[in-house]
Design goal:
The chain has 240 residues and is an alpha+beta fold. It is 44% helix and 23% strand. It is built from seven helices and nine strands. The strands form two sheets. Strands 1, 2, 3, 4 and 5 form a five-stranded antiparallel beta sheet that branches. α5 runs antiparallel to α6.
């Protein structure tokens, strides 16, 4: 049976796993694959594994325990190796990079921030501040058949929205960066215009949350901030 991998830790990690169960219909037994410097927390991988709630919770419970007790590289749900020997070989092959990443993540957690802005509020700002938008808007109101003006207006508004969202996202990240160690951006899906993760010192988690709250308050009710964390540092596992 294939080997399901939850996380990689230093060999010295306490690995308190006795009361936890892994993925699978019956909750698989957890075990540890080790080298001299590293350990991988694994279990047998059930056939046809899917992202069911019980399995997702089991995966997250293992990671929560490991990251609470020390440094751990969290693997995303569903990572499977051929067998324990291949997992052990991967630990040896990538030992230096895993140890560097573990050192960086030690004592740190991830927060993910997504931000939306009311579209009508953004549009009002654009109309108020952009003279060309106002001119084209008036032209289309006067002449219902002004096709070219409508096209130009739509293109201009779309470009303005994109540029303003991008600029605001950069401002938010810049404001919060002093309270974080690193950032990792990801593609934002509508209605969000910002999707970014922050690597934060565990001891500074409250200060980071307060900084997010202050930034949200300063921007007003048109903005909605969705902050999730502390989380295992998924976004900061890979080199680069």
């Amino acid at each position: 049976m294939a080997t399901y991998v939850y996380a990689i830790t230093p060999a010295r990690h306490p690995l308190r796993l006795e009361d936890l169960r892994g993925v699978g219909p019956e909750g698989s037994d957890l075990r540890v694959v080790s080298t001299e410097e590293l350990s991988a927390v694994v279990s047998s991988a059930p056939e046809g594994l899917r992202a069911k709630r019980r399995d997702l919770v089991a995966h997250e419970d293992v990671l929560a325990r490991l990251t609470a007790d020390g440094a751990a590289l969290p693997m995303r749900f569903g990572l499977v190796g051929p067998d324990d020997d291949q997992v052990r070989a991967a630990l040896r092959e990538n030992e230096d990079s895993y140890l560097r990443r573990l050192e960086e993540l030690d004592g740190r957690v991830e927060f993910n921030l997504k931000v939306t802005r009311d579209e009508d509020d953004l549009l009002r700002d654009i109309v108020r501040e952009n003279a060309e938008v106002r001119r084209l808007n008036e032209e289309t109101r006067r002449d219902a058949g002004a096709h070219d003006a409508r096209v130009r207006l739509g293109e201009l508004i779309s470009r303005e929205m994109q540029e303003r969202r991008h600029g605001t996202g950069e401002e938010i990240v810049r404001a919060l960066r002093p309270t974080a160690v690193r950032t990792a951006g990801a593609e934002a899906a509508a209605p969000h215009f910002l999707n970014v993760s922050f690597l934060v010192e565990r001891a500074g988690a409250e200060a980071f949350s307060e900084a997010v709250h202050r930034d949200a308050e300063a921007r007003g009710d048109a903005y909605t901030y969705h902050l999730h964390g502390p989380l295992p540092a998924y976004s900061f596992v890979e080199e680069g």
